[in-house]
Write a structure and sequence with these properties.
The complex is a heterodimer. By secondary structure, chain A is mainly beta. In chain A, 0% of the residues lie in helices and 57% in strands. In chain A, strand 5 and strand 6 (54-57) form a beta hairpin. By secondary structure, chain B is mostly beta strands. Chain B is globular, with a radius of gyration of 14 Å. Chain B has no helices and 11 strands. Classes of the chains: A mainly beta, B mainly beta.
Chain lengths: 113, 115
């Protein structure tokens, strides 16, 4: 079974802190994604990566950056957390050649105070 | 810009009812439409549709795609309380390069099944 894991299920940070969210997949997938999910807004793509060290902006990249140094790991970085970044963050992965089916991690609920 | 619209946004039914969830889309170079179920955790995959008129079925759930009218429906028959969840629809385009695997999601339909 595909397994996507995220470093924390719940995280509480203070405004201005640097925050790292980690995602690891064990199926050798080339493509990895970070979404945020908010009530009434659905899933919105923040960044994605289609290869090691390759990244592309999604629909809402402002205030975020990413890092992909190894194929299995994709990190989301909040350089200076703000209260409007309080959200559920979901990581997903998919292999090249698949018809877009993405496998999701359990999510990290981030609260910024 | 790719767009996915789901309706209704929320729905309350009684156990045993049949429900139909709708998903309409606008996407350049359509490749696939996917349905996910999300309870209080990560979305789990239900169906992937790529061809018009071919019904996909899994137990009490079924789905079909109409590429001419640009929509899909997800049917759930004999609903159970365990079907209560947010149902997400997503479309994937066929693009060249790295963005080939992006999905655009709708806002979801919140289904509540009461006993």
């Amino acid at each position: 079974d595909v397994k996507v894991t995220q470093s924390s299920r719940y995280l509480v940070k203070r405004t201005g802190e640097k925050v790292f969210l980690e995602c690891v997949q064990d199926m050798d997938h080339e493509n990895m994604f970070w979404y945020r999910q908010d009530p009434g807004l659905g899933l919105r793509l923040i960044y994605f990566s289609y290869d090691v060290k390759m990244k592309e902006k999604g629909d809402i990249p402002e205030g975020y950056s990413v890092s992909r140094e190894k194929k299995e790991r994709f990190s989301l970085i909040l350089e200076s957390a703000s209260t409007n970044q309080t959200s559920m963050y979901l990581c997903a992965s998919t292999q090249t050649g698949a018809y877009n089916e993405q496998f999701f991690g359990p999510g990290t609920r981030l609260t910024v105070l | 810009e790719d767009k996915v619209v789901q309706s209704p946004l929320s729905l309350v039914v009684h156990e045993g009812d049949t429900v139909t969830l709708n998903c309409s889309y606008e996407v350049t170079n359509f490749r696939s439409l996917l349905w996910y179920k999300q309870e209080k955790k990560a979305p789990t995959f239900l169906f992937m549709l790529t061809s018009s008129g071919i019904e996909k079925k899994s137990g009490r759930l079924s789905s079909i795609l109409d590429k001419k009218e640009l929509f899909s429906i997800l049917n759930i028959t004999a609903t159970q309380t365990g079907d209560s969840a947010v149902y997400l629809c997503a479309v994937g385009p066929f693009n060249s390069g790295g963005s080939n695997y992006k999905l655009t999601f709708g806002k979801g339909t919140l289904l509540t099944v009461n006993p």
